[in-house]
Amino acid sequence: MIQLAQVQYLWIIAAIPLLLVVYGLYRRHGRKMLRRFGDPELLRPLMPSVSRCKGWIKISLFCAGIFFFALGLSRPRTGARVKEMKRTGVEIIIALDVSNSMLAEDYTPNRLERAKLAVSRLADNLDRDKIGLIVFAGDAFVQLPVTTDYVSAKLFLNTINTGSVPRQGTALGQAILTGIRSFSLDTPGSRALILITDGENHEDDAVAAATEAAGQGIRVHCIGIGSEFGKPIPMAGGGLLKDEEGNTVVTKLDEKTLMDVARAGGGVYVRAGNSDFGLQGIIDSVHQMDQQEFQSVVFEDFNEQYMYFFGIAFFFLFMETLIGERKGRRFKSFDIFSKTAVVFVFLTALSLSASAQADKKDIRDGNRAFRRGNLEKALLDYHRALAKDSTSLKARYNLANTMHLGGDFQQASATMASVPDSLHIPENKADAWHNSGNFQLSAKQYAESIEAYKNALRIRPGDMETKTNLAYAQKMLKDQQEQQQQQQQQDQQDQQDQDKDQQDQNKDQQDQDKDQQDQNKDQQDQETPPKISPQAAQQMLEAVQQKERETQEKVNKEKARAVVPVRTGKNW
Fold first, then answer.
1. Are residues 462 and 430 in the same domain?
2. The pTM is what?
3. Angle in degrees, 0-180, between the axes of helices 409-417 and 426-442, rounded to the nearest 10
4. What is the mean pLDDT of residues 457-464?
5. Is the CB of residue 242 less than 8 Å from the CB of residue 225?
6. Does 297 fall in a domain?
7. CA–CA distance from 116 to each of 120, 132, 199 (Å)?
8. Same structural domain for residues 263 and 333?
9. Is the domain of 182 the same as that of 110?
10. What gap in Å lies between CA 472 and CA 257, rounded to an integer?
11. Taking 70 as the threshold, does the pLDDT of residue 97 lie above it?
12. Please, what's the b/e burial string for 17-40 (b: 16 or more CB within 10 A of its CB; e: otherwise)?
C-alpha cells in the first residue's frame, strides 16, 4: 500500500482543471479574434500549418507532467522495509542484585559495576539468543523484556543502579518468580535464568521458587559475588552503612544459599572472580540446551517511490517540448516555458532526493551515537530527522527507544504510541503495537500497555511473547489497583483516627474547662465571707480582746524574771 508523506502538495493537482479551463478560454478568445479578420473557413486555407488538436495535446501533456510532479512532491512510499531474521537459540534472563550490599568494594570498583561489566561483555558475544534483564532488591522488576536487541540491552544495563528498586533487601525468590513470568517461550529446555547476587537472602524462600522454576523447565543458575570474609558497605554521602544499633554492617557471600538454589533449579553455581567472572562458563553450558527457532523483525525505513513519479513527470514535460503547435513541426518548438518547467522538475527531483538522503543521514548519525551510548546526540539527530520528515517511522521509533533508555518513560510512550497508526502491513503493525506496549509498561501505564498488547494479539494471536507481556501487565495493573485501594482504606482509617483523636482532644478540653470552672467556684466560695448575726460578731470580738489581754499579761511576767548568765572556764 502506497502512503503519502507530504500530502500538502496535492493541492497542485486541484489547479490542473483550472489550467485546462484557462487554456480553453484562451483558445476561444483566439477564435474570436480570428473572426474579426473573416470567416474561419475562408481563412483556413491561408493557414495550412495551424493545427486544431496539437495545442490540446501539448496542454494535456503539460497537465499530466504537473500531475505526476505533484505526486512526486507528496513523497509516495510503500510500507516499511523490514528484515525478518530466523534464529535458533535459547532465552536467557539475567537477574541482577541491586541491593546496597552490591556496593561493597571487594571487587573492582564494586560488586555491582563488576557484574554490569560482565553482562555487557556477554552481550557483545551473543548473536542468536534472546536476552532479558531483571533487577531486584527487596522487590523485583523487569528492566528489559527478552529481546535480540543487544545494543538496547547494554544501554538498559548502563542505567541500572542501587536506586533502580525502591525497597531495599534481597528477595531471591521474588526475582526467580518474576523471571518465570518474563519468558516469551513456553518450550521446556530452552530457558535459563541466571542470578547474580551475594546470596544474602532476607525476604523469602528462594529454594522453593527455584524448585517451581525447574518444574516449568527453567534452569536456574547462580553466580556468587563477594568475599567470605565480608566487606563494609560504603554510602553515597560518605561513611559506611550501620545497623540500628550503630554497628558497621559487613556483607558476606552466602554460598550455601546459592548452592541450594542452583541445585533446586537444576543449574550450576559459580563463584565470580575479578579476572574470570564465570558468566561465560554458564552461557556455554546453556548453549548445550535445546535450541528453539524464533523470528526477529528489524524496522529499516519506507521504500521511497517519489523518484519514479518525477521520472514520469519529466517524460511528459519533455514530450511536450518536442511537439509543436503547427503541422509538420514535431521537433521544432522549444518554447522557453516548457524548457523552464522541465528544468524545474529536474532540479526539484534532485533537491528532494538530497533531502531524503539528508533524513537518512541524520538517522544514521543518530544510530551511530546510539550504539556509542551518546544518548543526547542520538536524540538531537533523531529530532533533526523528524523535523525534515515528520512521518519517518525509523526516526520516530528510534527516538522513542532513546527516550526510554534515557529514563523519559512518559515521553517515550507518547512518541511510540503514534507509530502503529502509520503502518498498514499487518506484521509490522503487530510488532509496533507490541513495542508500544513495552514502552507503556515501563512508564507504568498498565492499562494502556494492556490495550496495546491486545491490539497486537488481534493481528497476531499466536505471539507468545505478547501474551506473556500482556499477562504481566494485567498482574501489575491488578497489584496497582489493590495498592490504591489499600492506600484509600488506609487514608480513610487515618482520617477516622484523626477525627477520633480530635474528638478526644475536644472532650479533654471540655473536662479541663469544667474543672477550671469548679476551681473558680471553690475559690469564690473561699473568698466570700460567711454571713453572721450582730450578736455573734460581738461575742467573737470580746473573745479576741480577752485573748489579747491574756497574752499581754503573760509577756509582762516573762520580762519580770531576770536571768543572770553563769561564768565558766577558758575557751581559747
1. yes
2. 0.46
3. 160
4. 84
5. no
6. no
7. 6, 13, 17
8. no
9. yes
10. 28
11. yes
12. eeeeeebeeeeeeeeeeeeeeeee
DSSP 8-state symbol, 239: S
Contact 91, 130 (CB under 8 A): yes
Structural domain includes residue 547: no
How far is residue 233 CA from its own chain's centroid? 30
Same domain as 284, residue 344: no
- Structural domain of 169: 91-290
Asked if residues 86 and 431 have their Cβ atoms less than 8 Å apart, the reply is no
Place of cell 506496549: 437
Q: What distance in Å separates the CA atoms of residue 6 and residue 13, rounded to the nearest whole number? A: 14
Q: Which residue has the cell 536506586?
A: 163
Whether residues 174 and 236 share a domain: the answer is: yes
Residue 55's CB is within 10 A of a number of other CB atoms, namely 17
Mean pLDDT over residues 279-285, rounded? 82
Report in angstroms the alpha-carbon separations of 490 from 33, 129, 484, 494, 495.
94, 46, 10, 6, 8
What's the CATH number where 496 sits? 1.25.40.10
Counting DSSP H helices and E strands in the chain, the numbers are 18, 11
CATH of residue 239's domain is: 3.40.50.410
In a domain, residue 487? The reply is yes
The string of pLDDT tens digits covering residues 406-432 is: 667 777 777 776 676 666 667 777 877
188 and 72 together in one domain: no
Enumerate residues 6+ apart whose C-beta is below 8 A from 289: 90, 189, 190, 192, 219
| 139, pLDDT greater than 60 | yes
- The DSSP-derived string for 119-131 is HHHHHHH-SS-EE
Could you tell me if 257 and 348 lie in one domain? no
CA distance 162 to 116: 12
When divided into structural domains, the chain yields a total of 3
Residue scoring higher pLDDT (144 or 536): 144
> If you write DSSP's letter for every residue of 283-302 in order, what string do you get?
HHHHTTS--EEEEEEEEEEE
Same domain, 105 and 251: yes
Report d(CA 246, CA 212) in Å as an integer: 39
Rounded Cα distance between 402 and 396, Å, is: 10
In this structure, what are the phi and psi dihedrals at residue 200, rounded to the nearest 5 degrees? -80, 85
Q: Of 290, 314, 334, which residue sits at a domain end?
A: 290
Among 351, 371, 391, give the residue marking a domain's end.
371
560 assigned to some structural domain? no
440-to-165, 298, 436, 494 alpha-carbon distances in Å: 18, 20, 6, 33
* Residue 522 in grid coordinates: 471553690
d(CA 87, CA 320): 55
